[in-house]
Automatic annotation (TrEMBL):
This is Glycosyltransferase involved in cell wall bisynthesis. InterPro entries: Glyco_trans_1. It comes from Halopseudomonas xinjiangensis. CDD domains: GT4_WcaC-like (cd03825). One of its GO terms (biological process) is carbohydrate derivative metabolic process. Gene3D superfamilies: Glycogen Phosphorylase B.
Length: 428
């Protein structure tokens, strides 16, 4: 079978990175998989087709992305969260990769990469893996408690709109118009699947759960003392790690983490951070800390995860929680809230601690419990074993392989049919 993954964003990070790992795992188990992307980085992989390889294409891609985001600027009271419309994008159905594919597999498709109207042209089995809430909403990527995606959007809280006939209603109605009836939708956590089944757009669609994946061959334990020495962390204190691409995103809950630190003793803990954050805030906390900024390579991330005694993921709303899985793959127990995507990853008191949503004090209690647990080494082993057993890319790739076989089954025909003789679809 030939599978075309449609993936927006740089393959070096974020949702696109997970999709690329999945693609690699599929190829390793014999699936003819290709990635169609606007990523500038292709890792020198001939199975990756990028629409962003020269200056003209880069300018066009940037223009579409900015234009897509600019539509929300007509709402002066909008929030700072990302709002996407799906109104712009090149027609991927004209590509050689589309023509050759048996199955089309969408992932994160925003930032002006895919125009929703082109989905109506798809005449092959279509799977859409939701990597945030955008596929079911009128433009927001996380609803942050708003339930209007269940009734059709309008009067959008994130746009600061008071009109039912606003941009969010238009975007959602446009999705309804162009989504193929044969669509299969996949949530990367049970929470995301539940949200989709409640949504107006997907409540009559086949929605199922296949967890997000992590490459356990990239994220594995390194001796803590060696990792700390290589990173230049000199401390006898317990190391608490936190980080994300952008800690200022409201759904990441970084404010809850800062609040939880008020319940911890600065004499016992050394804080480490990666990603984008305001260091002036950290300076006022009174803790020793080390900030590593953006880490784009797996080696640095692996060392940092391994160096930590505890990884804290304070997200208020998260489709899955890839950083949790990466940390656990490196043998570091995780503290998170018992909510949304992360609750699928951590088993309470076995490989981490699930704090009461969304209590900062409970988050601090989790740090204390993990860092000083007599069964810490066992927790660390449990964390690593769970990732290998349940979330490794090859494990998840085989679950998708079964789904591909399922959606291709209606296309199977009797041996003497003209279609089989033409070889349109390989017979299992």
């Amino acid at each position: 079978m030939k599978v075309m993954h449609v993936v927006a964003g740089e393959l070096t990070g974020g949702a696109a990175r997970g999709a690329y790992w999945l693609h690699q795992a599929m190829r390793s188990i014999g699936i003819d998989s290709v990635v169609y992307t606007n990523s500038r980085a292709t890792h020198g992989d001939e199975s990756v087709a990028s629409t962003n390889t020269n200056k003209l294409q880069m300018v066009a891609s940037l223009a579409r992305s900015q234009a897509d985001q600019s539509l929300a600027s007509f709402y002066p009271k909008r929030s700072s969260g990302m709002f996407s419309t799906g109104l712009l994008g090149a027609d991927f159905t004209r590509s050689a990769e589309y023509r050759a594919a048996d199955v089309i597999h969408l992932h994160w498709i925003n930032a002006g990469f895919i125009d929703m109207k082109h989905l109506a042209k798809i005449d092959k089995p279509l799977i859409w893996t939701m990597r945030d809430m955008w596929p079911m909403t009128g433009g927001c990527h996380y609803s942050m408690g708003c339930e209007k995606f269940e009734t059709g959007c309008g009067s959008c809280d994130q746009l600061g709109s008071r009109s039912d006939l606003d941009l969010s209603r238009f975007v959602l109605n446009r999705k309804k118009k162009y989504l193929p009836a044969s669509l299969k939708v996949v949530g990367i956590s049970t929470w995301l699947t539940e949200q989709a089944r409640r949504s107006q757009l997907f409540h009559d669609v086949d929605v199922r759960t296949i967890s997000n994946n992590v490459d356990s061959a990239e994220f594995f334990p390194v001796d803590k003392q060696i990792a700390r020495k290589m990173l230049g962390i000199e401390t006898g204190k317990k190391i608490v790690l936190a980080g994300s691409t952008n800690a200022r995103d409201p759904y990441k809950g970084f404010g809850k983490y800062l609040e939880s630190l008020e319940f911890l003793d600065p004499e016992q803990y050394h804080l480490c951070f990666f990603g984008k954050l305001e260091q002036s805030i950290i300076d006022r906390l009174g803790f020793d800390y080390t900030s590593f900024g953006f880490l784009h390579d797996s080696i640095s991330l692996r060392l940092l995860y391994s160096a930590a005694d505890v990884f804290v993921a304070p997200s208020l709303m998260e489709a899955f929680g890839k950083t949790l899985a990466e940390a656990m793959g490196c043998g570091t127990p995780v503290v998170c809230f018992d909510a949304t995507g992360p609750k699928d990853i951590v088993t309470h008191l076995e490989d981490g601690f699930k704090a009461q949503p969304f209590e900062a004090r409970s988050l601090a209690d989790g740090v204390e419990w993990v860092a000083h647990s007599e069964s810490y080494d066992e927790m660390a082993r449990n964390a690593r074993e769970k990732i290998v057993r349940q979330f490794d890319s090859r494990v998840i790739a085989r679950q998708y392989q079964a789904l591909y076989e399922e959606v291709l089954a209606p296309y199977s025909v009797k041996p003497n049919s003209a279609r089989q003789l033409c070889g349109s679809y390989p017979q299992e």
